[in-house]
Amino acid sequence: MSSDPQTGTSTNRANTLQIPNVGIEETGELSPSLITAINHLSIENSDDESSSDDLEEDSDTLRNESSYANSAFDESTTTLSQPVGPAEHLRALIINRPTAQMITTFRLQKTREEMTQEEVVKFVLNPVPQGQKVLCKITRSKDGFGKLYPQYELSIEDTSENGEETKIFLLAARKRKKSKSSHYVITTDRLSANVSSDNIVGKVRSNFLGTAFAIYSNGRNPFKREPESTALPIREELGAVVYDPNILGFKGPRKMTVLLIGMTKHGARPVFRPETDAETLIGKFKNGEHRDILVLHNKSPQWNEETQSYVLNFSGRVTLASVKNFQIVHDNDLDYIIMQFGRVEEDTFTMDFMYPMCPLQAFAIALTSFDAKLACE
């Protein structure tokens, strides 16, 4: 396989070796190390200290619970699609997989300044149109003692009328300082501005080891005691990420499993509000209840003897080798890259994603890759 020795990325897709499955196989079996990790997946949801970060406003009232449609954004006019045969335990789920010729680059039809807060929230919480790929950049700024509390900004890449590349700010995230485990707050405010609790749209929580992460929309935490008069709806769980722990300490790429709620045949994401640990995505995953869950994995890189590195084909979108680089696929179609993420500079990363993900899900999954993992490295 021809590879760029400097970047550690494949340059010849036709010669790519067969990619083995990792984590959950088609039969629903788990790798031994992942079984060990499952016993430690519990995420504490009730240890937050009262602060302005916890002044949550439910964003569900601002999202379209059916298929996304808004004149502010480019609609997919493609009607042809090639369905992907889901795994046996996912037979109720459907992914409409467009062919490579049908995929186009997503473009916003309004500037960020022209969009209302309601339009922004609808966009970040709804799956992107089928057949379109969203190209993004994430910039990281390190703050706090020992650079333990970095901040991140997500921007959509675009091209102006004169052909110049531009970036449109979309979301920002920061790591909370008063939390027993990693806890990220995602907002529509820029980090340089005073973040309003009204503009918080999501959160990411990890377990102590950093091997499991839950992704939420804004809303009431069902695991915390709230006054009976509280009228906020319970938050939605939007996804979860589980990292296969590196128990033996072998060097190599991480193995990750991404859990999403399965899409309807109309391309909409059902509202999912678990109220007990067993009902959460990780709870269902732990108990082997995979029927209504879309189980995705990172595509396994291949070892290249010539460059002495693991390689993946990022089509030029990733230029620096990093343990953080990954591509997310479904086992039944390893060529349909639902999401990819990787480094291009020390503190700059590209993030591209497609249906069935929404911008908030993709950004949150990328945040989990940044986080330190005691048992994975």
From TrEMBL:
Pfam families: Tub. GO terms for cellular component: cilium. One of its GO terms (biological process) is protein localization to cilium. Residues 1-22 are annotated as: Disordered. Residues 1-19 have a biased composition (Polar residues). Residues 125-371 form the Tubby C-terminal domain. InterPro entries: Tubby-like_C, Tubby_C. PANTHER family: PROTEIN KING TUBBY, TUBBY-RELATED. Belongs to the TUB family. This is 2967_t:CDS:1.
